[in-house]
Automatic annotation (TrEMBL):
This is Maltokinase. Residues 143-166 are annotated as: Disordered. It catalyses: D-maltose + ATP = alpha-maltose 1-phosphate + ADP + H(+). The keyword Nucleotide-binding applies.
Length: 479
């Protein structure tokens, strides 16, 4: 990394030049540390150039926390074959801690030194996580970072922070039993739908969402693909959502864990599946009331089918095991295109969850279901994730998830009655039964299983047989 790669950096340092020291330190340490993080999107590809989009001292070393500092960094990473990705890093900086001690005491040590300071992943340090909550409580700016709160949010003192150990695409810090702060790791300009949709649902009084209390974003920072001269303009110039503090739901269990337990004992989870269907329909209704709804004409439905076909082709090119099914699966998308061409072609679209599966649902101690993580599929560009879509997309996601739970534990027959129960629960609230739209359901289920094949091939190759077996079944039913 040469100094010239830092020219876009609007460094915000309290009284000293932050960037050159950071520049010298970050390059070698990020090359080692970044690819090992679960949330790093470009695994397996060589890392090219880094460039700093923004650097902010949230707590200057030698300030309120004595020698300890808290640095906020947005760094662009170039890799061959990908548009640049922008990652959010929160770094602890300490002059005395040797990096080996950081590694044992605080988990992931990023490395060091930076200007004589050891750098480490700050969410793991309770002092720094607490400092971040303190900053979130107060609306206003620190350099390019803008902090906002909901008007009625309460911030009780003394909430002990801990990093969530859940398998996740980002990093979350739980404060006491009161709040959970999700720090988005790969970020792009534009409102993150997780914030946008949970705020809309909370404002509408929905009981199916963990209400946001505060959030922060980067303003006027050009990062990721938006920084490319010929890069996509969508979202460019909009604030970049960086973190959302939401109500924590203590004592809740996620739907995936509950479903797996039921599969293991060949149990009857149908009442829960139906309640989940009803909760999903309630969320769809609330989103349709709060945010725009539109009707796609035949040409738009055909474009949607063409995009699904393209995703299938791209996936077949990347994942050889998908190829044997590709031509039979195409007929699911051809049927959708035909539906668009016909008189029944109009399809209603609205904002939806976008990546609904059992792991995105929490059942509280009161037995009520809440939906979380409205980010959409992490691999899709932000602009696409914010686009209205047919609600059947979420239904298809949940149907796939019941299938995943069953096949993960080798109990395939568990899936069908639970998929049915979900649709029955959904229909009771929505007034329309997804099973009455077989062409839409089949197209969206196929599209989701194709997405899953690519997701598993990239992240969990041992799980690839699960979506592959679904593609084999969908290929037969579509033929
Ligand atoms: N409001 C909440 N209350 C309790 N636990 C939560 C809450 N939100 C998220 N979690 C837990 O954190 C995990 C990860 O959250 P999620 O939003 O899916 O993160 P990611 O987008 O990084 O995958 C969830 O599976 C759940 O276990
Ligand atoms: O939860 P994320 O937003 O990170 O979503 C991604 O990871 C999910 C897995 O953690 C993945 O979901 C797939 O596996 C689930 C079981 O682990 C299963 O319930 C889902 O149906 C299946 O799609 C999701 O696709 C991906 O976007």
């Amino acid at each position: 990394m040469s100094d010239s790669s830092w020219t876009r950096a609007p460094a915000v340092a309290a009284g000293r030049d932050l960037v050159p020291g950071l520049l010298r330190s970050l390059d070698p340490l990020l090359r080692g540390w970044l690819p090992r993080q679960r949330w790093f999107a470009g695994k397996g590809l060589p890392i090219g150039r880094f460039s700093l989009a923004a650097a902010t001292e949230l707590v200057p070393p030698g300030g309120a926390l004595g020698p300890l500092g808290l640095l906020h960094v947005l760094v662009d990473v170039e890799q061959p074959g990908r548009a640049p990705d922008c990652y959010q890093l929160l770094l602890g900086a300490h002059p005395l801690l040797p990096s080996a001690l950081v590694r044992t005491a605080l988990g992931p040590a990023v490395g060091g030194p930076y200007d004589g300071l050891t750098l480490y992943d700050a969410p793991h340090d309770p002092r720094l996580a607490a400092a971040l909550l303190e900053r979130l409580r107060l609306p206003g700016r620190t350099g390019p970072l803008r902090f906002s709160t909901e008007p009625n949010a309460q911030f009780p003192p003394g909430l002990t922070p801990r990093v969530s150990t859940a398998e996740q695409s980002n990093t979350s810090v739980v404060y006491g039993d009161t709040y959970i702060l999700k720090l988005f790791r790969r970020v792009s300009p534009g409102a993150n739908p997780d914030l946008e949709l949970s705020r809309a649902l909370a404002r509408a009084g929905s009981r199916r969402v963990a209400e946001p209390a505060a959030w922060f974003e980067a303003v006027d920072v050009v990062c990721g693909a938006a920084g490319q001269e010929d890069g996509p303009a969508e979202g460019a110039g909009e604030p970049t959502t960086l973190g959302v503090l939401q109500r924590f739901l203590p004592g809740s269990t996620d739907g995936w864990a509950l479903a797996l337990a039921s599969v293991a004992e060949d149990g009857d989870f149908r009442a829960e599946a139906a309640a989940l269907g009803a909760a999903t329909a309630e969320v769809h209704q609330a989103l349709a009331e709060a945010l725009p709804v539109a009707s796609l004409d035949g040409a738009a439905v055909q474009r949607m089918a063409a995009a699904m076909t393209r995703r299938l082709e791209d996936t077949a090119a990347e994942v050889p095991a998908v190829r044997p099914y590709a031509s039979a699966l195409r007929s699911a998308f051809d049927d959708l295109a035909e539906l668009g061409a016909g008189r029944a072609g109009r399809v209603t679209v609205q904002r939806v969850h976008g990546d609904l599966h059992l792991g995105q649902t929490l059942r509280g101690p009161d037995g009520e279901w809440v939906l979380i993580d409205f980010e959409g599929e992490p691999a899709r560009p932000l602009a696409e994730r914010r686009r209205p879509a047919p609600p059947v997309q979420d239904v298809a996601g949940m149907l796939r998830s019941f299938d995943y739970a069953a096949h993960h534990s080798g109990n395939g027959p568990w899936a069908a009655p639970h998929r049915d129960a979900f649709c029955t629960g959904y229909a009771a609230v929505a007034g329309t039964d997804p099973r009455e739209h077989p062409v839409l359901i089949r197209a969206f289920e196929t599209d989701k299983a194709v997405y899953e094949a690519r997701y598993e091939a990239r992240h969990r190759p041992a799980w690839l047989p699960i979506p592959l077996s679904a593609l084999a079944r969908l290929a037969t039913s579509a033929g």
